[in-house]
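hiii, so i know i said id send this last week but things got crazy w the move. better late than never?? heres the sequnce for the chain we talked about at the cafe, plus the structure i predicted for it. fair warning i was half asleep when i ran it
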Amino acid sequence: MRTDVDSRVLGAPPASPEVAAAFFSTRLRCETDPFDVHADLTARVGGLVLLDARRREAYDAGHLPGARCLPHQDLTPEAVAVLDPDAVYVTYGWGPACNAGTRAAARLAAAGLRVKEMIGGVEYWVRQGYPTEREI
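okay and structure toks below
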């Protein structure tokens, strides 16, 4: 039988339940997923603004219904200044290998806005079978 020292999982001991609870609670305050976003869109929950943080070409090819195109590289102080300070912004990129949503979320949070990143991005939105919109 192998020991904990040989284990890839247990080689670094797990966090205490208190540390783990704080960590996962923080993640839930900073992230959401396609299922929850779709549920809130279907329920017409107010106060949420979807921001597609990819380039315009990617947005035009397909984005979440009602999402605004605001590429992360365009989040200048001037662009952020016109955003509603009372909204909760949900940012997203292409998928797990794209950090556009993370970059946008970081910039919005640094500007004092409330934000969550939708993990999985458009890729996992589409995998769930949820609709997208295209710009013509």
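btw The domain at 30-127 is CATH 3.40.250.10 (Oxidized Rhodanese; domain 1). thought thatd interest u
miss u guys!!
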